[in-house]
Every structure is written in C-alpha cells, then in structure tokens.
Design goal:
10 helices, 222 residues
Length: 222
C-alpha cells in the first residue's frame, strides 16, 4: 500500500517503478475491481458485467497494452508491460469518488455539479500521473512525454465515454426532458465535449508521433 500511496501522491521515482512486484499488481487489481463495482453499485441501468466490476479489470489490461505499444517505438531502456500494467492498476483508486451517491443527499442540480467536479478531478489526477510516469520511468523527453500522454488519452476519452454512458445520453443529444434527467447529465455533456476535442487533436498528435518515431529511428542508426 505504501508504494501505491507514493504513486498517487506523485512521490514515485523510476526506481519505485522498477521495483513493482506481483503483490503490488494484485493489490492494484483488487482496487480496480472494488472501484469498478462501486462505480455502478447504485445504477439500475448498468449491466451485469458493470455491477461485477469485470469491465474495469479488462479495461486496465487493454489500456496498459495501448500505452505500452505507443511508447514502444520511442522507448528508452526498461520499458516493460508489467510496469505499465501495475501503474495503471494503482491509479484506479481515485475513481472511488464516482461511487459517492451525491444524488441521495443533494438536489439534482447540485449533484450534477459535484459529478462534473469529481470527473474533472479524477481525469486531471490521472493525466498528471501518467505524464510523470512516462517522464520518470520511460525517461522520455518533454515533447515525447507530451505526445505519448495525449495520444492515448484522445482515444481513452472516447472509450470512457462509450463505457460510462447510460441510455439517457441519447436523450441529451436529442434534447432531454426533466423527467429523464439524472445526476450524471452534466458529466455526459463534459464527456461529449472531451470526445469532440479529442477528434480534432488526434490528427495533430498522430503527425507529431510519426515525427518522433522517425527521429528515434534515425538516431538509432547513427
């Protein structure tokens, strides 16, 4: 647990990442599972896999592979999938905020605002952690770190939007009524905005990524 706290509070070093153990990974996986269950525990529209936390556990394996494969062409030394997977599992903990049933002790408008703040806080926390992980463990340069952080996130945002939407989102896009409103509506608007931004950023990031790969290969052939 000490290692996870060092990670979550930005105190980790490359040496900490190199020392990740199977126990660290299993604890991170357990946290991911609990957080996954908590995320949908009071959501009547969630499916069985969501209620069981299965989706969250599968997701970290796919996300970790995605981050690992993106960095692989521009990698330095010590770039291993296990370290990436363990780190991604560890940073699941902040998402426990999503399990707080704010709509039960606040009015609808206040609950919407709190949910957006929770979403923003967790997203920013994880982005900063990923940036520091790539900077410290992967030893990337500043431009490499920025692109390697934002490129997977442009896709991640779209995936999170698809995974976290309830049926009411379709009403939002069509113009929902108060009878169909939920405390998550504002969060949905926020996710839609992030998804739209990602679509515009993706081509720029892909071009920058291509340039980084070319420069890395050119440097290795010298």
């Amino acid at each position: 647990m000490k290692t996870i706290l060092r990670v979550l509070f930005f105190k980790f070093t490359k040496e900490d990442c190199l020392k990740f153990t199977r126990s660290d990974f299993l604890l991170g996986l357990l946290i991911t599972w609990i957080v996954g269950i908590g995320r949908y525990w009071d959501n009547p529209k969630a499916n069985l896999a969501q209620h069981l936390g299965v989706g969250s556990m599968v997701y970290i394996f796919l996300l970790s592979f995605f981050v690992w494969i993106i960095v692989y062409p521009i990698r330095k030394a010590d770039w291993k999938y296990f370290q990436v997977l363990t780190f991604i599992a560890m940073v699941s903990l902040p998402a426990i905020l999503y399990a707080v049933p704010v709509e039960r002790f606040m009015d609808l408008q206040a609950a919407r605002s709190v949910n957006v703040w929770f979403l923003s806080l967790v997203a920013l926390w994880r982005v900063v952690l990923l940036f520091l992980f790539l900077k410290r463990y992967a030893q990337l340069t500043a431009p490499e770190t920025l692109i390697a952080t934002l490129l997977p996130l442009t896709v991640i945002v779209s995936l999170l939007t698809a995974l976290n939407l309830e049926h009411v989102v379709f009403n939002i896009m069509a113009g929902n009524s108060e009878t169909s409103a939920t405390a998550n509506d504002s969060a949905y608007y926020f996710l839609i905005l992030l998804t739209t931004t990602s679509i515009f950023l993706l081509p720029i990031l892909l071009i920058g990524y291509g340039v980084l790969i070319y420069r890395t290969r050119a440097a290795r052939t010298k």
